[in-house]
Amino acid sequence: MAAPVSNSSGCWGVPEVYKHHEQRKVCISRPKYREGRNAKAVKVYTINLESRYLMVQGVPAIGVMTELIQLCALYGAVEEYRPLDEYPAEEFTEVYLVKFQKLTSARAAKRRMDEKSFYGGVLHVCYVPEYETVEDTRLKLQDRRRYILRAVHNKAKEKEQKETAEKEPTMSSDTATTSERIVMRHDKASDDDNTGEASNVSKHPSFPPLPLPPWEYNYYGHKTQHGTVSTEDKMGTLHNAIIVTKQQPAPSSSSSQTSSDGHKGAKHRLTSKPSAVRFVPRSTNLENRKRKMDEAAGHSLTDATRNDEPLIGPKLPEPPKLDMEDESLNTTVSLIRNTMKQVESVPDLKPVEKKVKPRRRI
Amino acid sequence: MHRYIPSHVSAHRTHLTTSEAKEQVLANLANFAYDPKNMDYLKELQVTDLFLDMLTEENENFVEFGMGGLCNLSMDPECRDIILQSSGISLVTNLLSSRREETVLSAITILMNLTKPSSRSEITDPAILQCMLRFSLSESPRLRNLAAVFLQDYCTEEQVAQAEQQMKGQQTAVGIPLPEDSS
Q: Testing the interface with B: which of A29, A30, A48, A260 to mutate, by most B Cβ within 10 A?
């Protein structure tokens, strides 16, 4: 399979590009940001960075090419591959170029194989879109566009089905700002659809499903005093929303933000706020949240003592579970709570520690 | 990316500057935008506008990440229209002259994504075509490829031929320079 398809503009010939490799300190397929020394901690992925072509470095030079390709093939069909002899390699290692049939396969292979050990060596896997032909690039863009349009189309259909199925308007879980904005967007988005439900969604619901337990009410009441609440939740939720979306299959894929789970419990409507997206640094958000967790944790001490007495009324669980009516937020809360338990004895607020990733190449 | 360590705040040894924190947030948002499942949510947050705002920032990272975000979002028709309505074409075109290769690549891709009947003539302006022609001669394969796709798929042959003529006719190359790090 190493026999390349003869292609005048293909990467399998010896294009001039390779001559540039010698002249340069670093291969073209390893732009500055991929160098370990200068490793950028942040990276934005676009379709231009990804590719069906992967470069695998660090393969021990002990004749395991077949095994390597077999490993790659676990993630999807491999169209072509060859060793990159002209590429600078560490001693006793080889470098391979692997072309997958699909971008999704390359993506999975990169994610799974990068930084993993292989026959005693550590593999470094990165995309090498530089090896694409014009046609490769064209197809890549077209595939991406088709994928997105399909996803958008499916979402629109889902939303339509949801709106016609549910007579009651959807409610948000955390802040009124979220729900009001979602509601407004539903209005906007539905304009083209011309569904009757759209106008109903914008009204306040006449009755919430269940009343909130008192301590939760206090928590939310406390939150409203902070100006950064809405943004903070979104920043916090945003990260986890992705995880939630991925774990949940289709039915709730569009609900990570609308949280239409009326059965989960009461939703509390707060006074609306002007909805400007504020650029609040993550460290501030986390510090705010830790401060609040501190206060919540403080409550837990008093609750513990009260548990011995016979309880009247709603029973407080121990430790007090803060149900934020959202899986992602609950996960966040329990994670932070656990962390807070560990650092409770330490008076200082530990600053957000930025993870230093060792020599990361994409 | 170097970290700013103020000497008088020894307790916060890994303190991020506001700028770096903003970059992280921006990069995170841009990466979220890569997954179409998140697009609805990001649209509600008006993140498209946020990315557009970044394009006129001096901080090159802000620009690059904002462009990456727009590159990811602009394939969605709604986002595309928002960008178009906000003079996106001229904002993005300005960045064809950026020193950052990623920014330039994003710019070309965004222009392609923004193309629809009503915007086509603006996007295939001769100045832009000339820029793409120069890019198609670049040493950078990615730049070459994207420019080639742009010229082949988004312009007519006549438009390209015309732009080529104009370039030859120009005595001094008043062109858009290639990005510095396009190596």
A: A48
Q: CATH topology for A47-131?
A: Alpha-Beta Plaits (3.30.70)
Long-range contacts of A330-337 (CB under 8 A, 24+ apart): A331/A240, A331/A243, A332/A236, A332/A237, A332/A240, A333/A293, A336/A289, A336/A290, A336/A293, A337/A293, A337/A296, A337/A297
Structure tokens given for B167: 């370039």
Q: Which helix (H) or strand (E) holds A56?
A: strand A53-60
The first and second tokens of residue A220, run together, are 């939310």
pLDDT digits 0-9 by tens, A23-80: 344 444 444 444 443 344 678 999 999 999 999 999 999 999 999 999 999 999 999 9
Give chain B's residues under pLDDT 50.
1-13
Choose among B24, B125, B30, B118: nearest CA to B74.
B30
Phi, psi (rounded to 5 degrees) for A126: -145, 160
Question: Which of A147, A155, A281 lies closest to B18 in CB terms?
Answer: A281
Q: Do residues A105 and A75 make contact, with C-beta atoms less than 8 angstroms apart?
A: yes
CA distance A186 to chain B (A): 9
Chain A residues with CB-CB distance to B113 below 8 A: 145
Helix (H, G, I), strand (E, B) or coil at A147: helix
DSSP A272: P
Domain locations in chain A?
A: 47-131, 133-163
Residue in A266, A170, A278 with CA at minimum distance from that of residue A230: A278
CA distance A80 to A53: 9
* pTM, to two decimals: 0.56
Helix (H, G, I), strand (E, B) or coil at B165: helix
* Chain A 179-208, residues with CB within 8 Å of chain B CB atoms: 181-182, 185
Would you give the DSSP letter of residue A131?
A: G
Q: What is the DSSP letter of A55?
A: E
Q: What's the complex ipTM? A: 0.85
